[in-house]
Design brief:
The chain has about 170 residues and is an alpha/beta fold. The protein has one domain (about 15-174): Lumazine/riboflavin synthase (Rossmann fold), CATH 3.40.50.960. It is built from five helices and four strands. A four-stranded parallel beta sheet has the order 2-1-3-4, with helices on both faces. Helix 1 links the parallel strand 1 and strand 2 (about 50-55).
Length: about 170
């Protein structure tokens, strides 16, 4: 019979988290930050066990996440940002390098670096993915909406849940 390793989101030991959040598209990223911080507190993480570092844009997230991870103070780092497609290839470069950079940081430090960066075609899609009203649900997951492809949810809350799960799962593997 297979043995299943489970990463419960319930705190089992004191944990510390860092959140690196982009200032670019601030109305969106502030809503993501609110979702993440509220989710941590709702799951038993004291507010003073979560540190927030602000960066100019999504492209700067990997460097700051690397510095946060290198301190050894955190069980996970959550990266939050929002990049909306424009008329030039800039979107593709920023999104690709941000994602690759964050993955590299996680592998380098063997630490969960959670990708909470919205990469959307429109500002409306970003607004739906950073919706504050969805924070009233227990898990921050999509609540359904009339816009078929962009359900209202808060990806910041989902990123915090991912960090909680990964910080419980990795010790179970060790």
């Amino acid at each position: 019979m297979a043995s299943f390793l489970d990463g419960s989101t319930n705190p089992t030991a004191p944990r510390r988290f860092a959140i690196a959040v982009s200032r670019f598209n601030a109305p969106i990223t502030e809503a993501l930050l609110e979702g993440a911080t509220r989710t941590f507190v709702d799951h038993g993480i004291p507010a003073d066990a979560v540190d927030v570092a602000r960066v100019p844009g999504a492209f700067e997230l990997p460097l700051v996440c690397d510095k946060l991870a290198a301190t050894g103070k955190y069980n996970a780092v959550v990266a939050l940002g929002c990049v909306v497609r424009g008329d030039t290839p800039h979107f593709d470069y920023v999104c690709g390098e941000c994602g690759r950079g964050l993955m590299d940081v996680g592998l380098k430090h063997q630490l969960p670096i959670i990708f909470g960066v919205l990469t959307t075609d429109t500002m409306q899609q970003a607004l739906h993915r950073a919706d504050a009203s969805s924070l009233n649900s227990s898990d921050g997951a999509a609540d359904g909406d009339t816009e078929k492809h962009t359900p209202k949810c808060n990806k910041g809350a989902e990123a915090a849940l991912c960090a909680l799960e990964m910080t419980a799962l990795l010790p179970a593997i060790s």
